Amino acid sequence: MDATHIKTKFEKLGARATIRPLVRNPWRPAAGPVVIDIGHDRHGEFFDIQAADDADVEVLDVQPRDRHLLLMVRRAAERPHQPDIKDKLLCGHDERHWFVAGIPEKAPVSTVVTAKEALKPDLVRSREQGKRGKRSKRLRRKTDVFIRQGEWFFIPAPGIRVNEKLILPHEPIRRGGGKPHMCEQLYRDGGTTVYVCSRHPNGLTGDEYRKLLKEDPAAAKWGWRTMARNPVVYVRGKITHPDHATIRLDGWHRVEMNTENRSRAMASVAFLD
């Protein structure tokens, strides 16, 4: 890996990047030869790249005006006579901050534009099929198909019928332990009931919850609340987040997250907004 070359590519975006030896963390074992985080110092944000001695990292595409680049991390396959494993990560600037996002492996991605397309939810890409116009316009944060805030896409759902008694005010949506996006009104339809607390932000199923309480009765005092996992979620009104501009949704919109959670490369990303 040519560290100087990679730093130069980040500089074209107006970004700083540090490259240092990979630190093995017993609490978060690295799944590959590279871990990327967004660090902070007195000069602001920077890309903190930890790389093993044998890491093979390459910049596939740089778009200075868009302030994005596409990284590829290559490593040998676990089985002999198999092709190398290639993980791709989109690094860039979104509104106010730098970010890193893993790209799903099944997507044929070689440029920043195709990486952004690969991050779109299936429902968005389905609704865009057959539409005419420049691809660049489909990558804006607001189009006639969706409004995007960070990793969340909000898709108009004018025909949805909701139970007014089940509308939740000032409700968060989040991925893992990241900062929540706060929704003025939210409605969930279907899904699996899970038990959530600060120690289990992704939730436990009923069986997992009961097993935990049996093994550790003190866990009952951890401030649990019930939520739905993988429901269809609709929101309307103001959507706020400290790292993004507030958006206002007129009428109900279906909520879909981008596809980075399908990416093996996300195991190399320490950043979570």
Summarize the structure.
The protein is mainly beta and 273 residues long. It is 12% helix and 42% strand.
Report what the structure shows.
- The chain is mainly beta.
- It folds into 2 domains: 3-119 and 262-268, no CATH class; 153-258, no CATH class.
- Helices cover 12% and strands 42% of the residues.
- It contains 4 helices and 16 strands.
- It has helices at 3-11, 112-118, 122-128, 206-215; strands at residues 17-21, 34-41, 44-51, 56-63, 68-75, 85-94, 97-102, 147-149, 152-156, 168-173, 181-189, 192-197, 200-204, 225-229, 232-241, 244-257.
- The protein has a 6-stranded antiparallel sheet with strand order 8-9-16-15-11-10, with no helix packed on it. Strands 4-5-6-7 form a 4-stranded antiparallel sheet, with helices on both faces.
- The two termini are 28 Å apart.
- The mean pLDDT is 89.
Rg, nearest Å: 20 Å
Biggest sheet descriptor: 6 strands, antiparallel
Q: Structurally, how many domains make up the residues?
A: 2
* Spatial gap, N to C terminus: 28 Å
Roughly what is the average pLDDT, rounded to an integer?
89
Structural class: mainly beta
* Poorly predicted parts: none
> In order across it, which strands form the biggest sheet?
8-9-16-15-11-10
Percent helix, as a range, is 10-25%
Q: What are the defining features of this structure?
A:
single chain, 273 residues, mainly beta, 2 domains, six-stranded antiparallel β-sheet, four-stranded antiparallel β-sheet, 4 helices, 16 strands, 12% helix, 42% strand
